[in-house]
Amino acid sequence: MAAFLSFLRGLAIADTLFDRRWRATEQALDRLPESAADRHRNLLTQLAADFPEVAFWLGQHEHEATRQEVHRLSLGLAEMQRVLIEFSTGRAPDDRRAALGVAYGAELRRPIVSSGDVPAGLTVPTLGEAYVPPLCRIAELGPDARPGDESWWDDRPVRDDLWQALVVHLTSPGATRAPLLVLGQPGSGKSVLTRVVAAQLPPADFLVVRVTLRDVFAAGDLQDQIEQAIRNDTGERLDWPALSRSAGDALPVVLLDGFDELLQATGVSQTDYLRRVAAFQHREADQGRPVAVLVTSRTSVADRAQSPPGTIAVRLEPFDESRVGTWVATWNRVNRAAFRALGARPLDREIVLSHRELATQPLLLLMLALYDAEGGDLRQAGELRRGELYERLLRRFARREVVKERAGLPDRELGLAVEDELRRLAVVAFAMFNRGAQWVTATELDGDLAALPLGGAPARERPGLRAPLAAADVVLGRFFFIHRSRTSLDERRRETYEFLHATFGEHLVARLTAEVVDDLVARDAAANLSWREGPGVDDDLLHALLSYAVLSSRATVLAFLGEVLAGRDGAHRVAWADLLLRLFRDVPYVAGARRFDDYRPRRLRVPVRYAAYSANLLLLALAAGGSLTGRQLFPEAADPVAEWRAQVGLWRSQLDPEEWQGLSDLLALDRLGESGARDLRIWTHHRRAAPPDVDVPWLLGLPAGQAGGGWGLSRDLLARLRRNAYLTCDVDSAVVVHAVEPFLDKLATALAVFHTAPGGSASAARALVDAWLLPLRPATERERREVYLRGVRLVAAVSGVVPEWDRAAFLGLLFDRLAADRAASPELVAEVLAACPVEPLGEPAAMFALLRCAQRALGANEVTDLRLARIVNPLVRDGVGQLDVALDGVTADVLVRLHERGLGETFLTPGLLAAFEARYGRQHPDLVRRLDPLVREMVDPPGKRRQHGVANEVEADS
């Protein structure tokens, strides 16, 4: 305001104002900011009152609920529905939209676990009663976002306004431009959130379609999947464009649940999935049918889909104490009568919170409640990990079913029967795991149970004329955590089973795997003959189970295995690792039929099964031993690194892209030794260990070079890069080759020559790229010095293996970057030029680039100018001091400035100055004048090299 008053005083009208008028003006201006703010607030309040959506966008909701009430917990997102109904401007829905609304609204009246037999006497709360909105973090996904990385979310604040955030999103224009991505860990409530949102969005204003991606044709396009989901939910065949147009003013909302399961179902990369969703939204908007889309996925696979611009991600967070308390209160209220009848105590909130790791996940919180109600008594349980809770629960439920069917069994037989039940459940888990799906059909499961020696139950007779129960029905019909569904596909009935959550199956996969390996270890220890001399351990069952899918595709399986092994002593883990290593070494040589070959969850080529089995043996050995060296894996190999490269090549070529990516993300590696003593160390790293820079000499098996040395690769190797990428159709190689093709075509030696420095060996191409990319991030003077000096020292080191023209071209490119680098100090420029070898500077382009660098650095200080003069003068003059390079604007400027500082040692001929004036006089008239003191008569000593450029023209004219 002071500046504005000063401006007013400078106007002519200010001279006509009296002091009283000036004081009134100043007072009015002093009140102006506050008055403007009041006016803005009044208008904003009126806008929020007229349009409630605006109030939510601004975080200023001022209806019946106070701000404190807005942030309170709202069971079942009922508050979201109430607010949206307040906003409602839509008409009553037509029959089709109403049918969808009825289908989704019915979800709220169903129990949160909707199938099977829950413990006797207990009542499972309905979804509408028990759903508690979780905490969340929200972020827009820009180009550098890493939503699959847990640490990336740390800077985003935890929020307790999930339902308000959903309202803001669904009532804002951005909802129809890009998808909303909902992320969470297994059991965090992603699918349940979509069920509740579908049920609570008012049909008058929203046309909701919930698509469970595992229940629709995975390879179909999005429109086909939507139409199939509508048919599954309503029984009607509806055309999406017609349905969307019929919505009128209501906003279509598509909820796509289970992107991670889509990855498993298709077995192919889905990196463009979210972009295809956004393209669908853009097409619909162009057709006048804007649609909002919400996609759910496990956090761990979020990075496998490129986010289109404008994508918002919501990551569901674990429950806090108040949410746990709210859920526990609901559980106790619903089961109050059951607790009295059973003589049991209500679930204690504080005891539940003592198992915080489990209690903060909604699904595991339910498991804790069931465990406590079944007599588990959490007060006596001590510290429980997730695997321990699952084991106790599954064992307790299995025991209850065995006792119900076969009362009076002795303890030993009862224990064996319980184990049989759990093994059959594990066959169910493997049926899904080995098919890369979250469900299995009854027919498939019957075949698996018959093929494996794990207590498969025969068909059970029913009384009367009813058909006997199949093995799948016998195994699965009794457990609340297994959901059975019946669907019709192509006029055929299909019955499928799935675990209520995938982690149940993943625990059972880990459990049976550990049990089978334990059995092999025990039999190996009891054998009379040495394993190496005898016929070998019979690993047919382990091979049958672990040769169809890689364990790293489900990271939770490995986590459960880690829990199992953590409870074993060191000797047992050593025995595990030893046995698995021997199997790993022997498996390439095992041929012929195996027992359990009738177990075929899917049809795979033999190399694929070998790849999966060998990868799993390695992962199990690493789980037991922590890390392994190449010589432990391949003790008979002359070069274990070559064997490892071949093994990894097999995995990469045979595993499907998702499995290979999961395995490569998990494995970490250290390179050991050098030359003929090379080795490596392998271990698992659950945070995607970042590899160090490529060490080319190590890869080639060369001895460590002396610092300062240079060497080159064969040109044939570079030619093979391009041929191999083309022949193999390998995406990774093709992307890299495409990036370096300009080098291959114009300066191939930049890729083929290397310089050994204290920090390792680097190619000329790498040195150039490092220099070119310096402007993209802040770099210190020291970092710049290392980059530029590495480049000029490389040119000096490879003089014996690289043609002079290539060396000059490299220097020209490097000096061009240095000349343009305004952050490089003049002292650094002088130091780099001083380190430059002289021979390549005979090429005009290299000399010109050097002179541009000198031009930029001259004038900084006397010391630097003197150093630059000592570099430039010998390069530009001949033996008698006459200019020996082309005279252009840059060269002229450098010569003039050196001369004016008393540092010049070069003179020009009159003809050369005249030619320069004719060509450059209009552009640089000052240079022509300042060059005049450098002119002398031409001296042409014997053997003088003829000049280029302007000098040649002068001599031709004379």
Distance between the termini: 72 Å
SS elements, strand count: 15
- Provide the gyration radius in Å: 38 Å
Total helices: the number is 44
Strand content: 5-15%
Biggest sheet overview? 6 strands, mixed
Shape: globular
Would you tell me the structural class of the helices and strands?
alpha/beta
Runs with pLDDT <50, length 5+? 60-72, 457-469, 487-492, 531-535, 942-958
Strand adjacency order, main sheet: 1-6-2-5-4-3
Q: Would you tell me the overall average pLDDT?
A: 81
Outline the structure in words:
- There is one protein chain.
- By secondary structure, the chain is an alpha/beta fold.
- The protein is 53% helix and 8% strand.
- The strands form four sheets. It has a six-stranded mixed sheet, sandwiched between helices. It has a three-stranded antiparallel sheet with strand order 7-9-8.
- A hairpin with a 6-residue loop joins strand 11 and strand 12.
- The longest helix is centred in the first third of the chain and has 32 residues, at 19-50.
- Mean pLDDT is 81; it is low at 60-72, 457-469, 487-492, 531-535 and 942-958.
